[in-house]
Amino acid sequence: MPATDTLIAGYQRFRKGYYQQNKEQLLKLSKEGQSPKIALISCSDSRVDPSVILDCEPGDLFVIRNVANLIPPCEDCNSLHGTSAALEFAVTSLEVESIIVLGHTQCGGIKTLMDTPPSNSTETFIGKWMQQLEGVRNEILADESITDQASRHSHCEQKGIQHSLQNLMTFPWIKERVEAGTLKLHGWRYDLSSSVLCAMDNATGEFKIIS
Predict the structure, then answer these.
(1) Domain 37-44+52-209 has what CATH class?
(2) 112, 113, 159, 176: which could join 136 in a potential S-S bond, CB 3.0 to 4.6 Å?
(3) pLDDT at 104 > cutoff 70
């Protein structure tokens, strides 16, 4: 069976099941628009679905997905900035209360960054995108206490979340709201093998299990 046929079968189940059971709420969202309290930046990885992991309903999350859940720094508008545009809408139009950067283990973007020689890193779209973490990669490779590639990947996944949180503060409309106390930033990391979810301690940078 083609993969698209599986999706069509799923849509038919949705129409007969979930849609009928939640029709009133879905029509309300259609008429009144969305008003999520949380914007969440997640990886495009097909194994990491924020709505499934966090058991959310339609309208709960404003989800922005890209390779390795990265936030680029605030730059001018002379290029195409999909992630920045989505963030701007979430913060200035929807007025979300929190932004969560949701990273995960076994990230393909991080693996590409750590395993590709620097000289070849800009030859692909992914390589160019991941170059945002070039400084993080170099710091990890220079750390003699990190001796195996799996540990390097893990450290880079965590440092990547920290890096994105720092970049969020380069956007003036985020910085203003954070300093005013109307917007909070969070770094979370999901373990694909164990389903354990960890949150970054903003004071120490350490990731602690959310129980």
Answers:
(1) alpha beta
(2) 159
(3) yes
Contacts of 210 (CB under 8 A, 6+ apart): 188, 197, 198, 199
DSSP string, 11-51: HHHHHHTHHHHTHHHHHHHHHH----SEEEEEE--TT--HH
Quickly list DSSP for 141-169. Answer: HH-TT--SHHHHHHHHHHHHHHHHHHHHT
Q: Is the separation of the CB atoms in 138 and 132 below 8 Å?
A: no
Q: Residue 73 carries which DSSP code?
A: P
Q: Which residues of 8-39 are buried (b: 16+ CB within 10 A; e: fewer)?
A: eeeeeeeeeeeeeeeeeebeeeeeeeeebebb
- 180: number of CA atoms within 13 Å, CB side? 9
What separation in angstroms does the CA of 65 have from each of 26, 68, 118, 123? 23, 9, 25, 22
For the record, the structure tokens of 64 come out as 């922005």
Per domain, the residue ranges of the chain are: 37-44+52-209
State both tokens at 33.
Answer: 């628009």
Alpha carbon distance 197, 53 (integer Å): 9
Using a pLDDT cut of 70, give the percent of the chain over it: 98
Please count the other Cβ atoms lying within 10 Å of the Cβ belonging to residue 162: 17
The 10s digit of each residue's pLDDT in 134-181 is: 999 999 999 999 989 999 999 999 999 999 999 999 999 999 999 999
